[in-house]
Amino acid sequence: xxxxxxxxxxxxxxxxxxxxxxxxxxxxxxxxxxxxxxxxxxxxxxxxxxxxxxxxxxxxxx
Amino acid sequence: xxxxxxxxxxxxxxxxxxxxxxxxxxxxxxxxxxxxxxxxxxxxxxxxxxxxxxxxxxxxxxxxxxxxxxxxxxxxxxxxxxxxxxxxxxxxxxxxxxxxxxxxxxxxxxxxxxxxxxxxxxxxxxxxxxxxxxxxxxxxxxxxxxxxxxxxxxxxxxxxxxxxxxxxxxxxxxxxxxxxxx
Lengths: 62, 182
Fold this sequence. Notes:
The structure holds two protein chains of two kinds. By secondary structure, chain A is mainly alpha-helical.
């Protein structure tokens, strides 16, 4: 393994690795697509009032 | 604008990246999905204030980010406890190549100040421009640039400078990416 130096700017190889790791973590979730619960939620809501009512319900329970 | 079918489709198309953003921010899948649900409800409840033709993903990310921050203030103590326990479990797990590297990365990300973490995720993973990320976070473009730079620099120090010999070669990074079907 190459020696890692911390001089002035970041080592380009390290920056590239961090970028890969960050995107790997993120894209792993993106690839899971849309869970049914969210597809159903958006389909079922008629409009703003229905959504607002669900927010109120939730606040009431908390 | 009214909640048309095409707007519903556009909102739905943003769900995978909203979830990824929420999980990256919170490090907790259940909490992330609660955040996404709340974001969707609030977006639709306030859909009249969405300007047609403006950036829908950026608008949705702004809602989620603000919810996360208000939620974070409420839960701060609870989260700090959870992070302490999480860190302990990490140290007792056996070293297993790509998985361990992923856990180490996640733990390092969680150590960043919240402002830096969200800036890095928005620019480095969600693919927003510095301008969009600044709008989402309600700050200047220069502030976002400096937060991203500080985040990268801190991650680099946490992961690769101290104890750099503990980390495997590049293959482990590729294994994380390749192992997920990418």
